[in-house]
Amino acid sequence: MDKAVREIHRASMEIAEKIGIRYHSARAQEILKEHKIKVEDGVAYFTEDQLMGWVKKAPADFTWYARDPQYDVQIGKGISNPAPGYGAPLIMDADGNKRKALMEDYLSMCRIVQANPDFSINGGIIVQPDDVPPEDSVLLMFYASYLMSDKCLLTGSGDRAQMEDLMKMVSIAFGGSESLIDKPRVLTIVNTNTPLQMDGRMTDTLEIFAEHGQPFAVTSGAMAGSTSPMTLAGTLAVANAEVLSAIAYAQMIRPGTPLLYATQCETADMRNAAAAIGSPEGALCYRFSAEMSRHYGLPCRGGGCITDAKKMDVQAGYESMMTCLAAMENKVDLMIHSCGIIDSYACMSYEKMMVDFEIIRYAKRIEKGISLGGETIPMDVIREVGHGGQYLLEEHTLEYCREEPCLPTISARGSVNATAVEDSIAQCLEEYKTSPMTVHVEPQIKEQLRAFLQQKGIDAGLLDKIDACAGMDR
Asked: Tell me: the pLDDT tens digits for 314-337?
């Protein structure tokens, strides 16, 4: 075992046993007690044997199923799967100006992700729409993403009633509640509340997803220096204790529940206490998140193309590439925030989505490495060209020129297209409407989902707007 992993594990076990994790849910406290966990004044104290005994019940890998099987995602197989940004309340334009996000933005961004071939995951809270009642937003965004995309779907989180309603909709959409156990269909994020707490809303989400066999990423977003110790080792020890506690609790609800280990930790900038999500320390935390998850035999979530930049500038580029590569090089299974996120998770940017698509393509090319075999070392051609010749007109060049290099779509090489980013946005939106990838939804399923939402008192006009954007006008 690596020394750092060993030390972080040892410290986490001490934290879990002697300091404990506070659970704000009375129901969770009772369930923990039923499973012989010591609970005093809402704080659960786990021995190492208890914690590891439950953690080992979580699967090392699982399949996350899309409506179109070509987009099924293998989690825990060493493949890094990008997913869009998550939770931003604002939209940022290319000059750094901000406005509130709207449902129209959510729908447009779903279309853009659906059109991108490198993403098999869509939906979730790409943005938090300001023009939708907060209590209805999780259900409405699931409805919208189901109509707009046949890829694997992220969802939001909520209290017990909201999550039960969400699972009713997922059951309608995917053939009944019994089928969900065999084929997990939706995934969400369950965040711990650093330091060393689990709030009621997140516990409700965890319980409902576990009861229905749907996966989630148990995530600590500890910030070194503000919500956790200033040192990365101390931060990771606290985060690890939180995450393992929640994983253990999930297995008490339903042994074998599929989930991901995640420490999406960063440091805080001590000059202003702001989160530094695009920092080298954050990239190191993603690397150690992968190492810790492998130690426990669990799949991992972490990283993405994330940045603290306040506009689309060089900082946005180099921080996003750094955090993306840190995750991909360490085989992180799920990379939420892999397109569009900017300004410390506060904003989504259409322009940055296009840049991040390019970053993902470049990173995947680096991950692919150098191909060997066949004619990848063409000795006959090298001999024929000899000294001082050229390869431009060789058949070998023609054969490999589209296969070997990763050709940019917006990066400047040779003549510069000043509108490349804007053109790419327009092209993605147009491709969604005209290409064979246009999503097919069974009309009866769509009507059942719509009827369920109207029974919940959701405005029919808002549903009409979503239907029109999805090309499913009544």
From this structure: 999 999 999 999 999 999 999 999
Q: At what angle do helices 460-469 and 443-455 cross, to 10 degrees?
A: 150
* Relative orientation angle of helices 103-115 and 134-148, to the nearest 10 degrees: 30
Decide if 356 contacts 339 (C-beta within 8 A).
Answer: yes
pLDDT of residue 440: 82
pLDDT of residue 472: 59
Q: What is the pLDDT of residue 463?
A: 92
CA quadruple 99, 104, 108, 111: dihedral sign: positive
Q: Are 203 and 28 in contact (CB under 8 A)?
A: yes
User: What is the value of pTM for the model shown?
Assistant: 0.93
Phi, psi of 188 (to 5 degrees): -130, 180
The bridge status of strand 274-276 relative to strand 266-269 is antiparallel
- The Cα–Cα gap between 174 and 142 comes to 13
Let me know the angle formed at the C-alpha of 349 by 286 and 319, rounded to the nearest 5 degrees. 35
CA gyration radius, the chain: 23
Q: How many angstroms from the chain centroid is the CA of residue 39?
A: 32
In angstroms, how far is the first alpha carbon of the chain from the final one?
59
Q: CA–CA separation, 467 vs 473, rounded Å?
A: 5
H or E element that contains 445? helix 443-455
Q: Which two tokens stand for residue 54?
A: 């439950």
Q: Which residues of the chain are modeled with pLDDT < 70? A: 1, 412-419, 431-438, 472-474
DSSP 88: B
The first and second tokens of residue 352, run together, are 């940055």
| Cα(172)–Cα(175) distance, integer angstroms | 6
Cα(410)–Cα(424) distance, integer angstroms: 8
Q: Which helix (H) or strand (E) holds 353?
A: helix 350-368
Tokens of 144: 């919208």
The residue behind tokens 């989180």 is 157
